[in-house]
Amino acid sequence: MASRWTHRVRAPGRVNLIGEHTDYNGLPVLPVAIQRSVRIELRARGDRRVRLTNEDPRFEPCEFEIAADLAPFPSGHWGNYAKAAAQALQRRSGLDGGFDGLVAGDIPAAAGLSSSSALVVASALALLAANGIELERGELMELTASAERYVGTDSGGMDQAISLGGRAGHAVRIDFDPLRLEPVPLPADWRIVIANSLVEARKSGGAQAAYNARVRECREALAALLARPTALGLPTTYRGLVSGVQSGRLLELAAALPAPLSGRFRHVVTEAARVDEAVAAMRAGDLEAFGRLLDASHASLRDDYEVSCKELDELVGCAREHGAAGARLTGAGFGGCAVLAARAEALPGLLAGLAQSFYGRRGIDPVARDALLVAEPSDGAQTDRLEDAYARVGPTTMPLSAAEIEDLRRAQKLLEHPGLAIKLTNLIGTPIEKGMALLPKRASTLVNDATTKALRAALRLAVVTMGKKPRPASRATHRVLAIGSGAAGGFFGLPALAIELPVSTAIILRSVADIARSEGEDLSSPESRLACIEVFAFGGPSRGDDAAETGYFAVRSALSIAVAEAAQFIAEKGLVEEGAPVLVRLVAQIASRFSVAVSEKLAAQAVPVVGALGGATVNAIFVSHFQDMATGHFIVRRLERAHGFEEVRRAYANLDLAGSRAPPRIGPRASGDPPRIA
User: Fold this and answer.
1) Rounded to 5 degrees, what angle do the CA atoms 184, 189, 192 make?
2) Which residue has the higher pLDDT, 573 or 141?
3) Statement: residue 509 has pLDDT above 60
4) Would 88 disulfide with which of 141, 147, 399, 480, CB 3.0-4.6 Å?
5) How far apart are CA 600 and CA 433, in angstroms?
6) CA–CA gap between residue 381 and residue 96 (Å, rounded)
7) Which class in CATH covers the domain with range 7-186?
8) Is 395 left (phi over 0), alpha (psi -120 to 50) or beta?
9) How far is Cα 571 from Cα 581, in angstroms, rounded to an integer?
10) Model confidence pLDDT, tens digit, residues 609-636
11) DSSP states of 112-125 as a string?
């Protein structure tokens, strides 16, 4: 219905750079509001009911009557975050009306990026809009912080404050009692990366008890310290101790406490000092000093606060190994994400290195699982009034014809069956993992560098050299060209990769461009050119893949923001500024997945029986695989131009293919988490 919604609210998630588990102790933090958010489109109701529908159909609709004392839904239900906001605002303002709302979001759930707080803030803004009430931002920050305790977590006020008070291009230092926000510019050549350990840390689940225990232990540590005769005359709050007592004396006091209270106290007071030092390092542009502070924070969280896990420790170590200036867990811990700081020029190698060393070792595709994100410091929450004639932009929704359904069925078979690893295993007659074991330890680094350079060259040269006139796709010609380079790769092995891969990549991309034209793409459009580059991220499933996480539409969704930004940049400035952050970010995201396919190809060529002749055959399979990906991709895009993205995606998911993969997953991984749209 074109005029259904009257308002749209948006509340971003956040990544905390430093200052972990300090906010509920009244000490400062340094978070960044990120580009991921929870959004609600709404219209006011004439009664006090709130009715919420989720764009993800696996989240059942929920509704409730606004009251000052609301009984919660079952523990872990996503609707409790809306109830938290409603109860707090009813007690504060006395709400006259509810609303009907459509909820969507793209913050990874259970990842320590504050998806739950973003939903509380978005729900509060929706209720205020429906009732025509305005609250001062500072008051709303404190109200939503206390409101979220409704779900049972004794959290501090950082998440709500940064969601409402974020600033584009800045981190924000937040102090408490009284609440104060100080924007700190992020240096232009710094990049903040969020890497998901994929160990879920649900505030509404098992992590809640451990989190609340840390809150309690901090209070017990402070009380135990103040009860000692040697503490006579000392300040009685953490804030007073940090600001009024020398750090050496604080460490002495900590050492006198019993375990685990000594560690809890030591982390809190040293972490507060690290926030001050981190702000100074950021203002001075001293990334090395900032990185050392991140490393020290992680060690403290691991050893003194005991909220890390082996996956987070490994992830942080991999990040340092592949070029991060510093890294630490972020959020409450017990799983979730690590935050990494790096120079812009180190970003491609860092992302590709993590894709291989951490995710690849686990058989995980980080692009499809939305596990790597380059944070973009963003503005805080906002409310927009929609025009009465509001309508979603896009082609008129029409069902696909029988012939188009068959085209889509063909595309799905190409895109989802089978993965490159399976094809290569069939060729060499042995599991591809055996070939992987034959590769030297330095192979990962060489593959990461080679794939990044090959994709940069492809972006710069391959597509722009092709004509614009549609013509049949010359698959065979390009495959023959690739066989020659593959023979060299098979004969010389890993040392030839840096020479052979750019050649193979350029050949593949020219073939992809021909396929794109044959499906009606206009390659004078930057968006269509990037759709060709995007093909290198479509590897198809391997034996270890979770089908719901690696489907074609899941990969496209994970790349969508980077592709859109890069297309806009190219439209305005062309391809000449290849070092621009938006282009570096896109290449890095695609390289992190393409490097997995390259490693599989290299592993097949490493099997002793393959050699030069087999290497040529391996390369032919490699090229043919991406030609299949391109054919499926551009069939889908042709249908989307006629019927719209959503209609084609629904038809794709509903196809009844014998032995097909599960439909791509859209949204959160469990019904207890706040919503997200992949």
Assistant:
1) 65
2) 141
3) yes
4) 147
5) 8
6) 23
7) alpha beta
8) beta
9) 15
10) 444 445 566 767 778 888 889 999 999 9
11) SS-HHHHHHHHHHH
Residue entry with tokens 């005769």: 229
Q: What is the pLDDT of residue 575?
A: 53
Mean pLDDT of the chain: 81
Residue 382: predicted pLDDT: 94
State the SS3 of 133-187. Answer: CCCCHHHHHHHHHHHHHHHCCCCCCHHHHHHHHCCCCEEEEEECCCCEEEEEECC
Query: Rounded to whole angstroms, how far apart are CA atoms 662 and 597?
Result: 22
Task: Tell me the one-letter amino acid at 674.
Answer: P
Q: Tell me the domain boundaries of the chain.
A: 7-186, 420-654
pLDDT digits (tens, 9 = 90+) for 557-609: 778 777 877 777 777 766 545 567 777 778 888 887 787 777 776 666 655 54
Could you give the C-alpha distances from 146 to 49, 142, 400, 604, in angstroms and in order? 22, 6, 50, 57
Which of 23, 106, 159, 628 is flagged as catalytic? 159
**Residue 260 preceded by cis peptide, ω within 30:** yes
φ, ψ (nearest 5 deg) of residue 491: -80, -45
Q: Which of 335, 304, 341 is CA-nearest to residue 319?
A: 341
| 3-class DSSP assignment, residue 69 | coil
Give the strands of the sheet with 382-385, arranged side by side: 62-65, 49-54, 99-105, 30-44, 7-18, 382-385
Q: pLDDT of 236-248, one tens digit each?
A: 999 999 999 999 9
User: 326-339 burial, b for 16+ CB within 10 Å, e for fewer?
Assistant: bbbbbbbbbbbbbb
Torsion angle of C-alpha atoms 528, 530, 535, 538, degrees rounded to 10:
-120
pLDDT of residue 25: 96
Picking from 100, 313, 304, the residue whose alpha carbon sits closest to that of residue 195 is: 313
Peptide bond before residue 608 is cis, with ω within 30 degrees of 0: no
pLDDT for the residue numbered 525: 78
Q: Is 546 an annotated catalytic residue?
A: no
Q: Which of 25, 18, 33, 22 is nearest to 278 (CA)?
A: 18
pLDDT of residue 655 exceeding 90, the answer is no
Q: Band the pLDDT of 311: cuts 50, 70, 90.
A: very high
Structure tokens at 529: 């050119």
Whole-angstrom distance, CA of residue 560 vs CA of residue 554 = 10
pLDDT at 539 over 70: no
Q: What is the pLDDT of residues 101-125, one digit of tens each?
A: 999 988 988 888 999 999 999 999 9
Asked whether residue 544 carries a pLDDT value surpassing 90, the answer given is no
SS3 state at 489: helix
Contacts of 326 (CB under 8 A, 6+ apart): 290, 291, 292, 293, 294, 295, 320, 340, 341
Q: How many Cα atoms occupy the beta-carbon half-sphere of 568 within 13 Å? A: 7
Residue with tokens 């709050």: 237
Report the distance separating Cα 528 and Cα 512, nearest Å.
11
Question: Which of 397-431 are b and which e, b meaning 16 or more Cβ less than 10 Å from the residue's Cβ?
Answer: eeebeeebbebbbebbebbbeebbbbbbbebbeee
Decide: residue 391, CB within 10 A, 0-12 exposed, 13-18 middle, 19+ buried: exposed
Is residue 651 predicted with pLDDT exceeding 80? yes
Q: What is the DSSP string of 503-551?
A: HHHHHHHHHHHHHHHHTT--TTSHHHHHHHHHGGG-----TT--HHHHS
Dihedrals phi, psi of 588, to nearest 5 degrees = -65, -40
Residue 59 or 267, more confident: 267
The first and second tokens of residue 449, run together, are 């560098």
- The length of the chain in residues reads 678
The C-alpha atoms of residue 309 and residue 301 are separated, in whole angstroms, by 10
Task: Identify the band that residue 129 occupies on the pLDDT scale cut at 50, 70 and 90.
Answer: very high
3-state secondary structure 654-669: HCCCCCCCCCCCCCCC
CB 332 within 8 A of CB 113: no
The whole-angstrom separation of Cα 377 and Cα 35 is: 7
